[in-house]
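Extended Data, panel c. Modelled sequence:
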Amino acid sequence: MTSPELLQAYIDYPLLFDFYAYNDMEEGWRNMSKQCNSLAELLLRKDCAKTLLDYYSKNGIPDVESSSNSAKSYFKIRAIEIAIGSKELMQYMSMEDGKKAIKVMLNVLKYKQKDTNSYSVLDTSVLTTTGGRIIQNFSKEKIAKLSSKNKDKIIIGIEKGLALDNDSFDELLVTLNDFASN
C-alpha cells in the first residue's frame, strides 16, 4: 500500500473513535498506534510526515455543512492532528514541515472559533499538544522563554494533551505564531 492509502485506512479504521476513550491523548495515541496496523506501518515510512501534512493542508477544516458527516470528519481531522504531534513522527519532520503544520492548525483554529457549533475545548488541547511538541522539537529556546507563571502548565498540557486556561493558551498561541512566521 502507498502511504496515502495507509493514511486513508487509518482514518477509516472502525475503532478510530476509541482514541478518545482514554485518560489523555497520549495514552489514546499509544494504544491506537499498537492496535491499528495501517497507522503502525505508516509511522515506519519516511514520507509519513509529508503524507499527513499534505492531507491536513487540504482537509484541515472539516465539512461542517454536512451534518451526517461532520462528526466523522471532525474526529478524523483530530486524529490527523494528533498523529502530526506524535513523538514518532517528529523524527521524519523538518522544521519547515513543523511550521507548515502550525500555520494550518492556526488557520483551522481561527475558522473553528468563528463557528461555535464546531469549536470545542478538544481543539485547544490538540493544538497545545501538537503545536507544543513541534516547538519543543525544533525551538526549545521558545519554550524556555515562556513566562514562569504559565510555563509549567503549558509543558504539562503539551505532554498530556490537556486544555489550558485562557492565559496560558494565549501565551502558547503567541509562541506558535512567532515560530510559524520566523
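The longest helix spans residues 95-114. This feature is highlighted in the accompanying rendering.
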